[in-house]
């Protein structure tokens, strides 16, 4: 169940994970829906993920139900602690969620945010912490140095193993690399965007894990969805499985983190490990 056509990648050079992991955003609630999901179902999803050999979970302390009663990090600890050997848990800090929605947090708030993740997950060191900046699109021209310096100091203290960046452009990456090594980038990625494609290529060249969230080119609408459907029929696969295989075909440093609150959907996603697309199909999906 754990063998993969797509292989593995070593985040930061030493955290080797299967290239299909698991995103925890939908454990507490379904996307931006306000209703909390059943915690028992969420824990069953996590335990099944471990049974299927999932060794990379992407989470955040702010992945929680609107009323705060169901939280992804609590569910991960309840379901999987003590954690299986080799399990890599990545988290994100930066945004602050209030009644009006997300806002950009301050550098002063990052240490408490990291400490909240440590406590909720029940660990004394976080494998990978992303600094998330902005919200919907990378905030061009905005400095991240002060915030990244805080995380770099926490890394020096031993509270964080590797650092990542989320929702950034090439200038942000360059600025951060002057402060500390960047092990991973997590962006809402459209390979048809020249700027985003250039960032992804740079990540590949520098052996930085590149972790798209959301569907590839999700802003393109039905054209790509129709293409996925055609390819899926040819392989006897689902559209979601083809989308995952397409993402992983972009480069060996790309990692997928499909999220779900359903055991059946989890099993469908992990089954994409065995799906390798032909070069002609990959070219047709670009």
Features:
seven-stranded parallel β-sheet; two-stranded antiparallel sheet; 286 residues; 17% strand; alpha/beta; 39% helix; TIM Barrel
Structural commentary:
- The chain is an alpha/beta fold and 286 residues long.
- The chain has one domain: Alpha-Beta Barrel (TIM Barrel).
- The chain has eleven helices and eleven strands.
- It has helices at 25-28, 39-51, 72-80, 110-121, 145-157, 170-177, 194-205, 222-235, 239-249, 263-270, 279-285, and strands at residues 8-11, 15-18, 22-23, 56-58, 88-93, 95-98, 101-104, 126-132, 160-166, 184-187, 209-212.
- The strands form three sheets. Strands 3-4-5-8-9-10-11 form a seven-stranded parallel β-sheet, with helices on one face. Strands 1-2 form a two-stranded antiparallel ribbon. A two-stranded antiparallel sheet has the order 6-7.
- Strand 10 (184-187), helix 7 and strand 11 form a beta-alpha-beta unit.
- Helix 2 (39-51) crosses helix 3 (72-80), helix 2 (39-51) packs parallel to helix 10 (263-270) and helix 8 crosses helix 9 (239-249).
How far is the first residue's CA from the last residue's CA?
A: 29 Å
Helix content: 25-40%
Under CATH at level 1, the class stands as Alpha Beta
Based on Cα principal axes, name the global outline: globular
The major beta sheet can be summarized as: 7 strands, parallel
The fold-level CATH name is: TIM Barrel
Sheet-strand content, in percent, reads 15-25%
Q: What strand line-up does the widest sheet have? A: 3-4-5-8-9-10-11
User: Count the strands?
Assistant: 11
Which structural category fits the helices and strands? Answer: alpha/beta
> Can you give the mean pLDDT?
91
Gyration radius over CA: 18 Å
- The count of domains is 1
CATH superfamily: NADP-dependent oxidoreductase domain
Q: What kind of assembly state do the chains in view correspond to? A: single chain
SS element count, helices? 11
Model regions low in confidence, pLDDT < 50 over at least 5 residues: 218-222
CATH structural architecture: Alpha-Beta Barrel
What is the succession of H and E elements? EEEHHEHEEEHEHEHEHEHHHH
């Amino acid at each position: 169940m754990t063998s993969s056509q797509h292989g593995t990648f070593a985040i930061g050079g030493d955290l080797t994970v299967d290239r299909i992991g698991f995103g925890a955003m939908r454990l507490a609630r379904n996307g931006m829906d306000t209703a909390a999901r059943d915690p028992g179902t969420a824990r069953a999803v996590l335990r099944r993920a471990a049974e299927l050999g999932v060794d990379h979970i992407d989470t955040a302390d702010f992945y929680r139900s609107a009323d705060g009663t169901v939280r992804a990090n609590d569910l991960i600890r309840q379901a999987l602690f003590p954690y299986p050997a080799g399990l890599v848990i990545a988290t994100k800090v930066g945004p602050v969620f209030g009644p009006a929605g997300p806002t950009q947090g301050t550098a002063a708030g990052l240490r408490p945010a990291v400490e909240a993740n440590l406590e909720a997950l029940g660990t004394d060191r976080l494998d990978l912490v992303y600094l998330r900046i902005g919200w919907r699109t990378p905030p061009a021209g905005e400095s991240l140095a002060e915030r990244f310096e805080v995380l770099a100091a926490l890394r020096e203290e031993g509270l964080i193993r590797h650092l990542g960046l989320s929702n950034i452009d090439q200038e942000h990456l360059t600025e951060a690399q002057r402060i500390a090594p960047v092990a991973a980038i997590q962006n809402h990625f459209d390979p048809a965007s020249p700027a985003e494609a250039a960032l992804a290529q740079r990540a590949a060249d520098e052996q930085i894990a590149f972790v798209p969230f959301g569907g590839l080119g999700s802003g393109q609408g039905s054209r790509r969805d129709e293409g996925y459907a055609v390819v899926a029929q040819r392989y006897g696969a689902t559209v979601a499985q083809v989308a995952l295989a397409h993402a992983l075909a972009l480069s060996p440093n790309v990692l997928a983190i499909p999220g779900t609150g359903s055991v059946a959907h989890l099993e469908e996603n992990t089954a994409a490990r065995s799906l390798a697309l032909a070069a002609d199909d990959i070219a047709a999906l670009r």
